[in-house]
Write the structure tokens for this entry.
Amino acid sequence: MRVCCQRSQSTDRKGRPVTRGTTETPATTADTATALDPDQSRELEEAWQGIQPDAARRLLIAAVEAFAARGFHATTTRDIAGGAGMSPAGLYVHYRSKEELLHRITLIGHRQTRRLMDAALAGTDGPVERLRVLMRDLTVWHARHHTTTRVIEYELHSLSAEHHTEIVLLRREIDGLVRQVLEDGTAQGVFDVPDVPTTALALLSLSVDVARWYHPSARLPEEQLGLLYADLALRMVGAARD
């Protein structure tokens, strides 16, 4: 049976056009609680600008907002669809479930992190400079995309077993890149690291945790924070600093 769709020229509460064939869901008290400030909204738009079609991208952004504000389990598909200016049924055109949305967010985010690290390591020579650039760029990344990375890092337990396994493999690759830098520095005598695996975990935790507390109004801008954390990392491994 073919259902006739209602056309609408209205916009959602953020001024975005409502997708054809859907009806805007009025904002509820819970929905309003997910509203982000302009800096956070721009951050999300930048992070997900490559996702197409537009409706799928808007749903991902709305899911990140809702998961960050409420947590995965407290968020409903109606919350997500309403945040994207769509009816609840519109979500299922692009995603099979709320968990699939979380998986897509987490998978894309970890792949972006891996590409960022590969680029940072490719342009530097020597363990000291490699660790400096790696920690700087990771810290800036988690600060600049703090809303998205907060969801990625702290909602892993909400993934299905299959999807969780997939993400864990990516995280091991990321951990392996840091370990390799530490092993190289230790072998060359420029680092003093008695326990490489634990030190790698500590360094990654240092940058990842930025997503938990960072806000654009923080005392240190992203780039300065990145430089500070890079210096802290070198101190942790006993490296000589310029």
